[in-house]
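Retry 2 of 3 after timeout on previous attempt. Resubmitting structure tokens to design endpoint.
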């Protein structure tokens, strides 16, 4: 809502009203897995809701359907057309945030597994290699810090990456209706992240 130009207060009001209506109404009964992703359905419902609210507000501001006389003429619209367009539209941003939240959840699950196994320090040292942001540290440096060998660290990173991919797949499986949809959703996740 903020990306659409609403003030923080108006954006909060719209989102709260939307979810109140979703929870109180029959909208969720209209969701159909065969017609697409639930998050796409939810976004479409939000778009319809916002458009409906905008029409209602516009009607009220313009006299509730009574004839009106414009005061500012075409100058306001001309200025609007000259402003640069935002290349990141709200729907792409929504999809990207979905992808990043999913990956954050996977990372937290992975951290939890290491912590539960008494390997929190190992995870903290290997995590940068998983995310490709090891800031110049080498396997040998990490091995020295952990009193291990470079070969053992390389193998640990390989296992960490493999487990991360497994958990991503599990998270994706929780969001689709059938196992045969997993690969398509993984492909979609990659395309959203490439952006």
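Retry 2 succeeded. Sequence:
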């Amino acid at each position: 809502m903020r990306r659409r130009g609403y003030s923080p207060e108006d954006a909060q009001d719209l989102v709260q009203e939307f979810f109140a209506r979703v929870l109180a109404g029959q909208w969720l009964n209209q969701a159909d897995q065969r017609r697409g992703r639930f998050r796409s359905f939810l976004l479409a419902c939000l778009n319809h809701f916002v458009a409906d609210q905008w029409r209602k507000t516009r009607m009220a501001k313009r006299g509730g359907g009574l004839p009106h006389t414009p005061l500012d003429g075409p100058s306001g619209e001309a200025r609007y057309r000259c402003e640069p367009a935002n290349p990141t539209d709200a729907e792409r941003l929504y999809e990207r945030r979905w992808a990043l939240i999913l990956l954050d959840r996977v990372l937290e699950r992975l951290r939890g597994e290491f912590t539960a196994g008494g390997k929190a320090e190992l995870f903290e040292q290997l995590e940068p290699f998983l995310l490709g942001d090891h800031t110049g540290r080498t396997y040998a440096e990490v091995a020295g810090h952990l009193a291990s060998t470079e070969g053992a660290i390389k193998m640990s990173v390989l296992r960490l990456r493999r487990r991360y991919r497994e958990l991503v797949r599990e998270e994706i499986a929780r969001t689709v209706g059938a196992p045969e949809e997993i690969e398509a959703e993984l492909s979609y996740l990659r395309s959203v992240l490439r952006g």
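Attempt log closed. The radius of gyration is 24 Å.
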